[in-house]
Amino acid sequence: MNFVAKSNDVSALIEADRAHVWHHLSQHKAYETVDPQLMVEGKGMRIWDARGKEYLDATSGGVWTVNVGYGRESIADAVRDQLVKLNYFAGAKGSAPGALFAKKLIEKMPGLSRVYYSNSGSEANEKVFKMVRQIAARHHGGKKWKILFRERDYHGTTIGVLAACGQPQRNADYGPFPDGFVEVPHCLEYRNQYPGADDYGIAAADAIEQVILREGPDTVGALCLEPITAGGGVITPPASYWPRVQEICRKYNVLLHIDEVVCGLGRTGKWFGYQQYGVQPDFVTMAKGLASGYAAISCTVTTEAVFNLFKDNAADTMSYFRDISTFGGCLAGPAAALENMRIIEEEDLLQNTEAMGQRLRGNLLALMERHAVIGDVRGCGLFYGAELVADRASKEPLAEAKVQAVVAKCMELGVIIGATNRSLPGLNNTLTLSPALISTPDDIDRITATIGEALTAVCG
Ligand code: PMP
Residue 3: its pLDDT value, please? Predict the structure, then answer.
């Protein structure tokens, strides 16, 4: 921890922040009485704030991003080497790191073959929506232009992707939105949307088919889903869900877009979340863990069949994908992503994620036995949620203030955890855990012991 020792003026830093920075997703009124917290240094699983307090980070940078942990010099070196060689050229041309990373990535994604670079998860998803619309315009006579998205899923922050937002408070006030985005129901077995169903996963998937039939299959171009819903409550679908979803998409010629912005790059213990379920998507988008936050990069990956729809009819001067992302040509991104992937492989982090995930699950289930406030534990790999309820029988969600008090207590005790936020009124009651893929047994045990202590302090 060097920063505070070197800085004589933490107060000036905090005041500069208070006076001039507009924080993401924050109500700034609070900073009139409380200092903003500035994170200044990280190493491995640990991070320090400007006042020198140390935390164990169980969120991988707040939003499931820093998969390989903080302070990776080899990624910084790879980025530096690339920047001094060539920092940038527009993505209409190829680049060395872009080509090498695409090849490496595609090796992990059988059935997919093309990588389109941009620089945020939102943007990667927008690219899919534009591709689907262009396919509709040029190959389906203007039909198949609708895009289905799911209740509780989130795909980003720009107006286009907010049109496909299943979390009401995220897009309230920001409309009107573009037409043709249609919501399908969720598959959260714990909240039992399909009482009496023989197979919950099949019932939830069939609800998607009902929407396709209602809208008209010739109007529906794509279905966009998170493999495991992240911010909407860490929702792992029942085993039967995904195969049926795939079957329905094939039946109605609907392209399947899986948003791996959170689950991609090892978070669930496989390279991608969809690989837990044996599905074959037409589009995969990824961002956060792609370079673990060492550079801004996202990818939209698709099949040769989709790619060819934009290539084969070269006589049509409007047929190519008429899109550019200026900073999709920034070469720090693929350089960092390549080294990030090498680390995941060389340090066997998928295997570690699997093993530490089992430990995390076991610890959370043990906590559930001691704390009636935990109603459900869901997740996979190093990606877990613990849904908190006021009463197990009625499953009434625990009040948001108490959920936030648990998060704050953990922070006070030196462990950073997350929670689903206000975007889900009445359902913002799930604690979220996504420690880095380098977690050790001691890290996992400390995280869950701290949650236990916080639950006792807040809920008794
Ligand atoms: N998709 C999912 C599933 C996400 O969780 C997020 C961000 N939380 C996004 C897309 C948007 O990514 P970004 O913030 O990089 O635009």
Answer: 55
Which 8-state DSSP code applies to residue 58?
S
Domain match, 221 and 358 both: no
DSSP 299: E
Residue with the larger pLDDT of the pair 4 and 336: 336
Question: Same domain, yes or no, for 320 and 369?
Answer: no
From the CB of residue 23, how many other CB atoms can be counted at a distance below 10 Å?
12
Ligand 1 pocket, residue 340 CB under 6 Å = no
| Claim to verify: residue 261 and residue 286 sit in the same structural domain | yes
pLDDT at res. 201: 97
Q: How many domains are there within the chain? A: 2
Do 320 and 430 fall within a single domain? no
**Which single residue is written with the structure tokens 């919950």?**
200
Distance (Å, whole) CA 206 – CA 177: 27
Question: Model pTM?
Answer: 0.97
Model pLDDT, residue 376: 97
Is residue 73 classed exposed, middle or buried when 0-12, 13-18 and 19+ CB atoms within 10 A define those classes? exposed
Integer CA distances (angstroms), 144 to 106, 159, 186, 321, 406, in order: 28, 21, 22, 18, 46
405 and 289 both lie in a single domain: no
Report which ligand 1 atom has the smallest distance to the Cα of 298: 15
Query: What is the C-alpha separation between 188 and 387, in angstroms, rounded?
Result: 12
From ligand 1's centre to the CA of 155, what distance in Å? Answer: 5
Could you tell me if the CB of 63 is within 6 A of ligand 1? Answer: yes
Final residue belonging to a domain, choices 346, 380, 402: 346
* CA–CA gap between residue 225 and residue 256 (Å, rounded): 8
Do 325 and 366 fall into the same domain? no
What is the predicted ipTM? 0.99
